[in-house]
Design brief:
It is an enzyme of class 2 (transferase). This protein is of the alpha/beta class. It is built from 23 helices and 23 strands. The strands form six sheets. Strands 3-2-4-1-5 form a five-stranded parallel sheet, sandwiched between helices. Strands 7-8-11-9-10 form a five-stranded mixed sheet, with helices on both faces. Bound molecules: S-adenosyl-L-homocysteine.
Length: 620
Amino acid sequence: MKQQGKLSIIGFGPGSLEHITGRALSALGESEAVIGYNTYVELIKPLLTHQEIVGTGMTEEVGRAQEAVRRAESGQSVAVISSGDAGVYGMAGLVYEVLIERGWNREEGVQVEVIPGISAVQSCSSLLGAPIMHDACTISLSDHLTPWDSIVARVEAAAAADFVIAFYNPRSGRRTRQIEEARNILLRYRDPSTPVGIVKSAYRDRQQTIVTTLRDMLEHEIGMLSTVVVGNSATTVYQGLMVTPRGYERKYNLSKAIQTLKPHERLRTTAEPWSLAAAAARGDILAATGLTDNSSERNSPRTVLLVGHGSRVEEGNDQLRELADRLAARKPELHIETCFIELASPSIAEGIDNCIRGGAKAVYIVPVILFAAGHSKLDIPMVIDRAKQKYPDAEFVYGRPISAQKRAVDILLDRIKEAVPAIGTEASQLDGTTEVRSSEVRDRDTAVLLMGRGSNDSDANSELCKLSRLLWERTSYLSVESCFIAVAKPSLQEGLKRCLTLGARKIIVLPFLLFTGVLMKQCEEEVRRFAADHPQIEVEIGGYIGTHPLLTDMLAERIDETLAGQASANCDTCQYRQEAAYHHHHHHHHDVVEGEFHGRHEAAATSVTSAGGTGDMQRR
Ligand code: SAH
């Protein structure tokens, strides 16, 4: 039999020699070779005596794991080192994966020992006070090996469940937005004053500890060597130390020597009204365990059909599909299909066919559309009407567009922040110097130009203006102006000129578009040209809505409304009525029953205002 070597997978703790365990030290001593990331090998170099140092140039973790296994298989005693604990975003799992891939046998193959170390969640917490104490979790914000959607879903879940959270890999030179998005999610569940600790290089040279809040955390340096610990709703700060109470309700008395509850009384159900036993005693055991009798619902998931616009730019269509994936991850109890109004497939009719073919008895149709106009008021309902005739036994429930709302303004504020970044070079991040604003132009000399798609439906156009106003009220800019890239006026060019007329020294163009596409590209091109023609003006352009987590939120809400049968279209300012529908159908030669509007929309169809376009377009 071939002689087998040994693999010691060693977590050596945060970095100081004093925080390495005794077993880690002895295992290092027993090894003939050491494999690890350069920086880590440097940290433990004082402990190495005879060991060969392997592959310090190797940047790939997989390569290191393979090399370690290869050497162990040829009889060597190899130490694979990770900082912290090797089982926490470290080498342990990877080494096992390589072994399993090679058909490793636990009894006869190379011997493996995983030696535990102090992970960053523990070392950093010890420097911050006692922020963990209660239920906590670790989340790595690195999306190199984990899909960002999964990370978002975990941050959401941890935030909602009030876990103390330790964020590993919070930011690197290239991955800068993840921690910002994570904070945005947390802010929806936790108070802005929630304590946050940022520890850089715990127990190493240049150790740095900051205690701040969810509100202010981004004003501090966060880098590759930092761990960010976010407190739960009970965490407090005392003289710069974060402390999370051991229990939410005090069963113990801290100021008195004698406890009010005697030891044998402490475990009584009455002393723990929050416990499972107490819930069972009250008879709401089902509620306590989250078990309700919805077994029939669980057997047949409800089907939601998301309707996007569709684009000539395939990337834009993919973005709708990705949104659907995010929603599916968020709502695993649903079956979610996608379709497009035009320019991409499947069409709405095909989308409905897919749902019915998949066994849906009811299809909940939710438009992924910003503002209500012709598409959502007319085109989609028309296809639904036809589907009703085709599938008389099925039920069709129609939702409503996103429309102007506070979260849309939140998204715009985030897009402004990204478009007008604080300069944070890698160097300044590392030595902790304060960041400088990139621009000297003050807010009151800056105009924001919100750009919508534009429609010949004044209802939709006016919603963009409403958003501009809502945005302006939450900023200190000279003005927030509105313009449109297609159909309606003022055009993007006219909007830019308006900003000049107002005396703006800086213009931030904010496209209010869901996804990328022809219009987004046209906008970028026009803004680039304008900037070139006006070198004295600072011009920035914000990103489209895209993957912003609040978009997922807004749609999740529209889905919930639709499932509950609560979505109602805004008919008050709607210019389309039965008559218009007739013309439209007629125009397109559709053999649809005249004036049959879908669902709630028809209820208001009596308050007919002037039919026909009254959009800005017609004014010119
Ligand atoms: N196996 C390691 C984690 C590796 S992932 C452990 O258990 O600690 C790398 C991330 O760990 C870093 O981005 C940082 O978030 C965190 N980290 C590791 N060592 C740290 C230290 N000494 N101080 C602060 N954070 C640290």
